[in-house]
Amino acid sequence: CETCSKEEAKYRCPRCMKYSCSLLCVKKHKLALSCNGVRDKTAFVAVNEFTDLNLLSDYRFLEDVGRTADAAARHPIVHSPTTKKLLYGLRNKARRCNIDLRTLPIGFTKRRENSTTFNCMEKKFYWHLKLVFPHSHAEYTLKRVPDDKTLADILKPYIDPVESDPVVCQRLKIYTMSPQSDVQILMKIENRKHNSTRYNELDAGRSLLDNLKGKVIIEYPTLFVVLKTLKNDMVVLGQ
């Protein structure tokens, strides 16, 4: 058992492949790793490891996607002129800021949860933003983040030793104990092959808007906060 290291393992998590010996250890591992226990149907599989079971899984996955897409196409909001106008306006405003903002069809989770708006009076975006801290297996969702706020200020309530929330600080202890110079902020580059994932490194001293310029955003930005001294699988563009 990879949780208690005492008993013989009986179960294996379909998502993270961790071995567990009991229901209690299964629950503990889900809590510690923020794991939902559901198999990742879109995980990359090398050609030499591809089996008939993978083929069947992909076929069923595509059937599910077809049903979901068909149900979404029938949704009344899809045909609403107001919805189309709002999305067109949002993409158009982003384009003027040199941001390639793309929206997903109704039915996708990111489309449903996205709360990004543009304030015409202030002439700035208020972004829906997701922060992911891989070394602590934690992620947080922020709403109405002004585009003129620097990334350093956005991260202060999370990893600043003085200003961060005590509960959050405890969970992100590995970040708060590290020097600020060791913190690296990355954002995934969209429209690349699954086995060629690359990340852009963002500047913590610049505003969110400046960091998003010239990039493709699908619904809303997701920022990965990593530590340079700790090993991770994220490859920065150019490395």
TrEMBL record:
InterPro entries documented for this protein: BCD1, BCD1_alpha/beta, Znf_HIT
Domain of life: Eukaryota
Keyword annotations from UniProtKB, A to Z: Isopeptide bond, Metal-binding, Phosphoprotein, Ribosome biogenesis, Ubl conjugation, Zinc, Zinc-finger
A GO CC term attached to the entry: pre-snoRNP complex
GO BP annotations listed: box C/D snoRNP assembly; maturation of LSU-rRNA from tricistronic rRNA transcript (SSU-rRNA, 5.8S rRNA, LSU-rRNA); snoRNA localization
UniProt GO MF annotations: zinc ion binding
Pfam families, per the entry: BCD1, zf-HIT
Domain (HIT-type): residue spans on this chain: 1-35
Quaternary structure annotation from Swiss-Prot or TrEMBL: Interacts with FBL, SNU13, NOP58, NUFIP1, RUVBL1, RUVBL2 and TAF9. Interacts (via HIT-type zinc finger) with the RUVBL1/RUVBL2 complex in the presence of ADP.
Family: Belongs to the BCD1 family.
Main function: Required for box C/D snoRNAs accumulation involved in snoRNA processing, snoRNA transport to the nucleolus and ribosome biogenesis.
PANTHER family linked: BOX C_D SNORNA PROTEIN 1, BOX C_D SNORNA PROTEIN 1-RELATED
Name of the featured protein: Box C/D snoRNA protein 1
UniProt source species: Chordeiles acutipennis (Lesser nighthawk)
Name of encoding gene: Znhit6
